[in-house]
Amino acid sequence: MKLILVRHAKAMDRVKALLKSISEEDRPLTKKGKIKFSEHAKLHA
Q1: CA distance 18 to 45
Q2: What is residue 6's predicted lDDT score, i.e. its pLDDT?
Q3: Does 6 map to a domain?
Q4: Within 13 Å, how many C-alpha atoms sit on residue 5's CB side?
Q5: Of the candidates 4, 22, 3, which has an alpha carbon nearest to the alpha carbon of residue 13?
Q6: What angle do CA 19, 31, 40 make, to 5 degrees?
Q7: Each residue's pLDDT tens digit in the chain (45 positions)?
Q8: Is residue 2 part of a domain?
Q9: What is the pTM of this model?
Q10: How many structural domains are present in the chain?
Q11: Domain residues for 33?
Q12: How many angstroms separate the CA atoms of 41 and 45, rounded?
């Protein structure tokens, strides 16, 4: 069995999310966050 732990990547600024009524759990990743997450996922898959 292989267990992979995932750390969250850079997400939208909290204040901007609050102003747009986006909850903490639903804050989208930034473009940079998506790229870094993908790079790390490929390395550790």
Answers
A1: 34
A2: 76
A3: no
A4: 1
A5: 22
A6: 125
A7: 887 777 778 999 999 999 999 999 999 999 999 999 999 888 877
A8: no
A9: 0.70
A10: 1
A11: 14-44
A12: 6
